[in-house]
Specification:
With 634 residues, the chain is α+β, with helices and mostly antiparallel strands. The chain has 3 domains: 160 residues, Immunoglobulin-like, CATH 2.60.40.2380; 213 residues, Rhopdopsin 7-helix transmembrane proteins (Up-down Bundle), CATH 1.20.1070; 132 residues, no CATH class. Helices cover 58% and strands 11% of the residues. The protein is built from 18 helices and 16 strands. Strands 1, 3, 4, 6, 8, 9 and 11 form a 7-stranded mixed β-sheet that branches. A hairpin with a 6-residue loop joins strand 14 and strand 15. Helix 4 runs antiparallel to helix 6, helix 8 runs antiparallel to helix 9 and helix 16 crosses helix 17. The protein is elongated.
């Protein structure tokens, strides 16, 4: 019985010890303040998380026993607030040490968190609140540092629980670090020192390439300067340096400034790639793809800015333009373009740093091994800047070598040309000398021939003068004969039966008819029918006249029997002549046959002419052989 009791006690002791170990393993582990430990990062079961999607929980609720077990230990070394604009509660425990000689503080390493409310335990069991974050002016911070620091009171030996309420518009890393003040000062000084080197390198590279752009006027230098400045501004926005030094009183702008810099960095990186590697000429399809990526990146940025700024947090989309530039460099290098080698090397480092950051964001914790991994992308940016500068220098060096080679070839060719020129000059001199002798002998012969030609020319000149005199007499006879022919023809037209072909010789076209009408209408001078003004200008229609006073324009057919007729005017002339000559007895069928116009049209227009003849019967009896023209004017 006693033996059984002993076994039972041993078993109970082992069970209770194991249970204590399990409770110890699964309960939250407090971090102890110790002078010998200058820095302690809270991770895994040292920090617990509670998600509050609605943001309705109060501090009294989450600090109550009902919510004690709802906090869960962090599953990763770096817990994150992954949901945008969602409230997260974080809880840590600190074992204070009143005997510690150093001052300690809590630091939030992610300076992009929008809003943090810290609930700090007091000795009397109450909590004091402190609010900070990058939505508040930089001047409100206790310590003027890019990160958020919280001084802790270490005047007791209690294990106390700290609560933090975090809300951010982008993915926030809840990296909480317990540091001694001495360590913090040393760390901050070193960090700002390296920041100065990093941003100083960006400025030096940018200034140098800006000078190169001013001197050479090649776009690649300008794109490289803008790309470097965009990268620098993005890094400053991410590090909190920009908020501290550039816009400390603009928290609203601080929320989105990194997005502008990131978008500009992607665009100028692709433009720099196109200019440096001659992508348009060497790879037209890749050039089109790059232009499409630039357009889509700008469209995504504008959509995010105007409609949903939470999309700015998806920084991994920069993987697309980065991959496009990296692949373009590899492709151009594979085609034998040597400056692309440093370009590929530089973008290879940047690609590696970006991939590492992406994997850390996806909780590959084995990659998160300290400051080097945290600032890996910045280190890769520095390496990229160096190798891209090598790429530009390599391009310039290759161009210089090509230029020197071309100059040597030009000098060599100029020497060959000079030698060829000398030989040609000697040959030409010999040929000129021989030709000169030949020309001299021929000139003697030509001189004799010229003498004979001069005599012949004198004779021809006398004959030409005689021919000219005879031509003048013939011209006078021809003019007189032509005048007589025209007179006879006109008289025949005005006094006898002629066919349309003969009539058309006098009035062959519309212009000759209009000229006749103009001379007939205004033979006694022009008078405006509206204002009686006697001065006019040429109108817009040929042979029309426009009043210089009222601007009334009168065409040549207005107020004539030809006004608004659809018959060609030369045929209308002939119809008037035929009806007048036949004294109105010619039939419409005959007119249709002679003029090749429809009989109905001839009847209509002939009736109109006959009506005018009837109205002017008495006047027409007194006219001469040109009396048919009296029918023209209304």
């Amino acid at each position: 019985m006693l033996k059984n009791l002993t076994i039972f006690k041993s078993t109970a002791f082992v069970f209770l010890f194991s249970l204590l170990i399990c409770v110890r393993a699964f309960s939250q582990v407090p971090v102890e303040v110790n002078d010998n430990v200058s820095q302690q990062i809270f991770s895994f079961n040292q920090i617990e998380v509670l998600k509050d999607p609605g943001g309705k929980l109060s501090f009294d609720q989450i600090s109550s026993k009902a919510y004690h077990n709802r906090f869960k230990p962090s599953k990763t070394s770096t817990p994150q607030a992954t949901s945008f604009n969602t409230t997260y509660w974080f809880r840590i425990r600190i074992k204070h040490n009143s005997k510690a000689e150093k001052y300690f503080l809590l630091e939030f390493f992610d300076q992009t968190i929008d809003h943090i409310t810290a609930y700090i335990p007091q000795d009397n069991g109450t909590y004091k609140t402190k609010i900070f974050g990058d939505r508040y002016k930089f001047s409100q911070r206790v310590l003027r540092h890019k990160n958020f620091e919280l001084l802790i009171d270490n005047e007791n030996d209690l294990v106390q629980t700290y609560y933090f309420k975090i809300k951010s518009s982008q993915v926030a890393d809840a990296i909480i670090v317990l540091r001694s003040a001495e360590w913090f000062i040393a760390y901050a000084l070193n960090e700002y020192f390296f920041f100065g080197i990093f941003y100083g390198m960006i400025l030096v590279f940018s200034f140098y390439n800006l000078i190169m752009f001013i001197a050479i006027r090649q776009k690649q230098y300008l794109y490289y300067v803008l790309y470097n400045l965009s990268v620098g501004l993005f890094e400053m926005s991410n590090d909190g340096i920009a908020y501290q030094y550039l816009w400390p009183n603009a928290p609203g702008w601080n929320q989105i400034a990194y997005a502008f810099a990131l978008c500009a960095a992607s665009i100028f990186a692709l433009l720099f790639t196109r200019a440096l590697l001659y992508v348009k000429a060497k790879a037209p399809r890749l050039n089109q793809i790059i232009l499409w990526i630039i357009g889509l990146r700008i469209a995504f940025f504008l959509y995010s800015l105007l409609f949903n700024q939470n999309l700015f947090s998806y920084k991994f989309i920069e993987f697309i333009p980065l991959s496009a530039a990296f692949f373009t460099g590899i492709y151009i290098y594979s085609k034998g373009y040597l400056p692309a080698r440093f370009f590929v090397l530089g973008y290879g480092f940047l690609f590696l740093g970006f991939t590492m950051k992406l994997l850390i964001m996806l909780h590959f914790d084995w990659l998160n091994f300290g400051v080097i991994s945290y600032y890996s992308l910045s280190f890769c940016f520095v390496l990229e800047m160096v190798f891209l500068s090598f790429a530009i220098g390599d391009k310039v060096s290759i161009l210089k070598k090509k230029k020197d080679k071309a100059q040597r070839q030009i000098i060599k060719q100029m020497a060959v040309n000079a030698k060829l020129k000398d030989s040609l000059n000697l040959e030409l001199e010999r040929q000129v000398e021989a030709r000169t002798k030949e020309v001299f002998h021929k000139s003697l012969i030509i001189e004799a021939k010229n003498s004979e030609l001069q005599q012949a020319n004198d004779l021809l000149l006398q004959q030409a003068e005689e021919i000219t005199r005879m031509n003048i007499l013939l011209e006078q006879d021809n003019q007189e004969l032509q005048t007589n022919v025209e007179k006879v023809t006109r008289d025949r037209v005005m006094s006898a039966d002629v066919d349309f072909e003969e009539f058309s010789r006098i009035y062959p076209d519309k212009e000759s008819c209009n000229l006749f009408l103009a001379e007939l209408k205004w033979k006694n001078g022009y008078t405006c029918r509206k204002c009686k003004n006697t001065h006019f200008y040429a109108g817009h229609i040929p042979y029309s006249r426009r009043c210089s006073k009222c601007g009334y324009e009168e065409s040549v057919t207005t107020y004539t029997i030809f006004h608004n007729t659809r018959i060609p005017i030369n045929k209308a002339f002939y119809m008037v002549f035929l009806i007048f000559s036949s004294k109105g007895k010619i039939s419409s069928h005959k007119l249709s046959e002679l003029l090749n116009i429809r009989q109905s049209t001839c009847w209509t227009y002939g009736t109109r002419i006959k009506t005018v003849m009837e109205e002017r019967k008495s006047k027409l009896k007194k006219t001469n052989k040109n009396g048919w023209s009296e029918l023209v004017l209304d």
